[in-house]
Structures are given as C-alpha cells and as structure tokens.
Amino acid sequence: MVISERKKKILAAVVDEYIRTAEPVGSKAIAQSGELHCSSATIRNELAELVSLGYLEQPHTSAGRVPTPMGYRMYVNELMAKQKMSLEETEEMNRRLNQKLQELDDTIRDVSKLASQLTDYPALALTAQSSVTVKRFDLIYVDANTFILVLMLSSNAVKSKLVHLPVSVDADMVRRLSTLFNASFTGVSEQEITPALIHATERAADDSLGLTAVISAFVLETLGEANTPTAFLSGENRLLNQPEFRDPDKAHKLMSYLSGGGYILPAAESLGGSDEVRVLIGPENVAEELKDSSVVIASYDAGDNTRGLIGVVGPTRMDYSAVAAKLSFLAAGLSRRLGGGEAPPAGMHNKLIIKEIEDGHERRKG
Amino acid sequence: MVISERKKKILAAVVDEYIRTAEPVGSKAIAQSGELHCSSATIRNELAELVSLGYLEQPHTSAGRVPTPMGYRMYVNELMAKQKMSLEETEEMNRRLNQKLQELDDTIRDVSKLASQLTDYPALALTAQSSVTVKRFDLIYVDANTFILVLMLSSNAVKSKLVHLPVSVDADMVRRLSTLFNASFTGVSEQEITPALIHATERAADDSLGLTAVISAFVLETLGEANTPTAFLSGENRLLNQPEFRDPDKAHKLMSYLSGGGYILPAAESLGGSDEVRVLIGPENVAEELKDSSVVIASYDAGDNTRGLIGVVGPTRMDYSAVAAKLSFLAAGLSRRLGGGEAPPAGMHNKLIIKEIEDGHERRKG
DNA sequence: TGTTGGCACTCTCTTCTTACGAGTGCTAAT
DNA sequence: ATTAGCACTCGTAAGAAGAGAGTGCCAACA
Of A137, A216, A245, B291, which has fewest CB within 10 angstroms of its CB? Predict the structure, then answer.
C-alpha cells in the first residue's frame, strides 16, 4: 500500500500532535501548524482517506483523528524523526552509567531506574539468560564448625557463603573436598550436575557428614540464579502521569501485571540478536494486559554471547522517538561495559588453593 | 476526657463499619447491627455528642459519621478487638518465612513483599542501622593479575570480590597483605578506617602497586553498605485498591513519595526498642505526604542490638486490627530468626544449618 | 483534477435543573 | 432516659439544554 508523500506528512503531524497533547487532532490544528501549504478542507479530505486506509480513527463522528496501531506502526517505521539526544543528556547518562560498575544485578537494577527516570515511563530490565559454569572452588577453613565456600563462575562473578556445621570437620577434610570439587565440578553446566555425580563425589570424598550435599546444593542454587533471567521494574507509578491511565482500574491492572513479572519469560525468549530498538504497539503485544499499551525494547550484549534487555512500557501514545533514542543509548552503554568480554585468563581451572589464615577471632554475640 | 461505655461501643461500631464499607455510617446501620439495645434515635443523640467531642465528623450535614484521626486513635488505643490470626494464616506465614533464609537483603525484601501480600497494602521494610566490622580477611591468589578478596563481617555475612590488576603480583605479596589486613583492619569500625590507617598499612606492606587502596576501598564500601539502613518497598500498586485513592493525583503523590524513599531516615530514627506495634494516624505523621494516610510499624530484632522495621501504609480507614496482628507476627518471626544469635530456627532441612549467605559479584570490564 | 471556502450536521462536554433519598435534629410522648 | 415521628437538609443521580469543536459535503475556482 503506497500512500502519497503528503498523506505521510499529515499522518506524521497527527501522531506528533497527538503524542504531545493526548487529544484527538483536528484538521485545523494541522493546517495551522504550517508544515503543509494547504487549507483545512484539503487536509480534511486527506484525513478521511487516512481513516479509510486504517491509519487513523475517530473516537466519534465529530471528533479529531487519533492514530490507530497501524498508524503508529507506519510512524515508527518510516515517519518519525530519529531523535538525537542533547549533549547534556548524553553526558548525564554516561556519568550515571559510569558511576557504578558494581555487582551485576545492582547495575541492571540501576539501569532500569535510570531508564524510567529518563523516559518518565515505567521501565524494566532483564538480565541475560546464560549458561554459566563454575570456574573454581575455594573452601576457607574458619574453625572446626565453620568454613567459607567461595565460587568463581565462568562469568568471573564470585559468590561466597558461610557454612556453619553442627559437627566438627578438620582442615584436612575441607582440603580434600576442595580438591575433589575442583576436579569434578568445574566447567560443568547446571544440567550436568546430576544426583549421580553428587553421589559419586560424596563417596570419593568419604564424606559421612553430608558436606558434599550442602556444597552441591549451593552450587546448583548459585548457577540457577546466575542462569535464570531476572527482571527489575522501576517507576511503575509513572504510569499515573499519563492521562490514559487516569482510570485507576486500568492503571491498576497494568501495574499488577508488571509487578507480577509474568512477562519475563516471553520477553527473554523474544531477545533478538541485534542492537536495534524494537517497538511493540498495542495489539502487537502478546499479553492481553498490554493490548492497549506499547513497549519499546532494546537489547544489550551481556557477554558470553548472551543478551539482556531494557524496556519501557507506556500508552500507545508514547514518545517513541525520544524513548527509542534513550534506550538505544543505554543499551549501547551497557554493551560496552558488559559485553565482548575478552577471554578470561586461561590456565587457572584446576588449580587448588586453600587459604588458611590464623584466626582467633571470636564471633561477636549480638 | 472520660466517655461513657456506650459511647465507646458506638464509636467502635462506627469505625468498624467505616473500615468495612468506606461509606459514612448512619445511626440506623448501627442500631441494626444489634450490638446496642437501643433505637436509632438514641444513637443519633450519642453520635451528635461524639461529633462535638471530636471523635467523629460529618462530611456534610445530612451524611453519616466518619471517624476523625482522634477517633481512630481512641479506637486503636482502647477499642479495637485484638485480632488473632487464623491457624491457616499463621501456618502460611511461617511457611513462607522459613522458606528462604538467605542473604539478608533478600530476606528483608521478601518480608516486605510478604507483608504487602498479606495486608493488601503497600509495605516497606527497613534493614537495621548497625555497626558491623570486619571479622576476617582472606585473599585468594588466582593468577598473576587476579585475586579474590573475601571479607567475613562481624554479622557473619561473607562478601567477596574479584580484583583484577593491570600489574602482576606474586603470591607472596598477596599473603603478606592478607596477614597485614587481618592484623590491622579486623574489629575496626567504619569510622576508624582513616586515610592515616590506610597509609600506614600501605607502607608496612611495602605496597607500591596500590593494592592496599583497592582493598580498603572495598572494605569501606562493604561496611558502608552493611551499616546503612536500606528500605524495600513492595506492592505500591495496592494503594489503587483503596477507594480513597481513586483520585489518581492523590495516589500518584503518595506513591512517588514512597518510591522516593525519603521516609527512610526519619523512620530509622524513630525505631523504638520494643516489639510493640505502633500506629501513626493521619496528621500524626510528620511527612506532609502522609498527613491523610496511616502507617503501622513493627520493629524486629536484627541482632547486634540493632532493630529494623516493617511497616504498612494505607488510608486512615485502615484495618488496624488485622494489619497490626500480621505485622506483629512477622516482626516476631524475623526477630526469632535474625536476632539474639542464640538458638537457630527449628525445622531446618538436613543436619546442616545454613547461617547466612552473602555474595559478591564482579565483572571484568569489556 | 485538485483545492478551497462555506455551511449544515453530529456528537460530546458542560452547565443547569429537578427529583430522590439517606440521614439528621428536634419535639412530644412514654 | 429513651423512643417514635416528622420536617428539613444536602449531596447525588438523572435529565435537559446550550455551546463548541470538528466533520462531511457541495459548489466554486485555479
């Protein structure tokens, strides 16, 4: 379906204006905006055709025009001005991205907050679904009843846990376990850690105390957490800024849906490979609750050939241009920081190191 | 000001009914409820007096009565039935509290979520403001450019971090640093870690690579995080369930205030020592934004002589009785698990008891 | 053939009016 | 002191009327 250049201009004008005012746009307003050099009557004719083509609709007979999802789609694909962010904005975003290069989850949480603040819509961020393995184990002997378990993952994250036992273990046992785990659990995927493997290890360690079980439980839990995509949602309340959510019921429904997190899996699956920003308009969304909202999604390179995503939710009357620009920038910033990780230094895998440091510190009672 | 027994009964009936229906309560409704053995005319007389005493008010001349904050206060202090939770509720709560005895922050976050779900109001949870110190250091040598830093805190939390260096260190240096830090940084409060101390350590370690700086920075950050009270907010959107927040502006204002977290410090300061549940009704709140909402707060023993808190925010027409009961139960449950450091919770799986999990996470820059 | 001004028409939104009813306060009777 | 009865008040729901924005269409025009 080819439509004339002028129709496109008019459509763009309608969408722009509607995004700005949230009110149906009349022919007069467009004529006066000065973009087109023709009268309101001409524009009325064009508008009527745009309606019959399905790009616009009228709330009622004598109201202005409002874009349909199809109209928005056309706008997003072809018409909208690719917005550049101002220098200040770019700097501000860079500053805030740089500020905290910390624990991954926290970074992602902050990014979702940032996205929400920048766009003034609710924002969500998803960590990547990956397949992390354990790179090395360390067990630190603390006292007869206690040791610290340290895991270094293939993603170079480090997780640790204090294990307190009702029975005594000796340093030797701890050392033996450490060797064993480094030998048989490193580089192994979550799925490969079977009960059989655990049992074998337990027997090999001559472990009657159930330490093996505890350790492998922690390993499984840690890998599970690291591999499962998690979502962070920020600024839900910004929905209420939008006139389309003045109806508390509507707002509540969408907010509950978002808080519920039911979108996580579908979203994680839809992860495309590109850095491109995708826009899902109204009924293009699968979830019933989003049928008259829009979602803008950018994905970022999280390293290890995995991708996470940042998204923003709002009414279909969303400032696509600005939001897309901002998300794209954010995603690029994240990719730069997380992605493309050069291979971690090799040759450390089967090294075993147990630190035993003189201790003599007592646990302080609370 | 002493008021008659019958007035109290009537006041209680008004509050109960108003909590239930959110509509002004008329004399007829009270007479029919059967509690009192007198006619609606008598009740009208009493109601008129209760109004002039300041316990009730009328939205307009010919409407029913609505409790004033003073009325709610009287209700909370003297009249309300101390609600017992049903057996199922208690069990459900216990089950969910036991479910995850994990990293502290997560526990608290879960508790706030739990509180919100149980009460159907937004809930917040604050971690305790404490003065944690480092109990022991471990440095795990990974390779020439990398080591893992593990901190065990006085709270028995364990934090770890991967440190990647642009220069080479030898295992000996790492060992030396470890000894030094254990000697001079353990048991030391955040405030006592001065630049002078850091410098002294750096010289003693003969550290020209700046490792001391990196390590002490992490220590300071970790202690800072552990000591600063943090708030978790859940279920903000439940506000929209309440008829008094059908006005989106009102709802939005309060939600923004809550999300902003500005209440954290005042709240943390107001921490009383007792296990008692406190109720702040409408204008009793300091924050302007809460002037016509109510807050119910319970505090829990977080160990180390510190206390955190769980709270619930809602309209003044809140089901104080039920909320108080639930929060009190939750707080008691938390205290039992976190506080005192004495007997660990019963009913844990296995023969091993997991005291606490902490984690750290570091990503290499891409 | 495309464009424009004019005009009657449609439909929503606001304002005004009216009617209703819940709940009151007062009074007189018990 | 309590109660029944009754007139009164006032907010709310429902209906009516007017205003205004915007349209569709037609006839004139370039």
Answer: B291
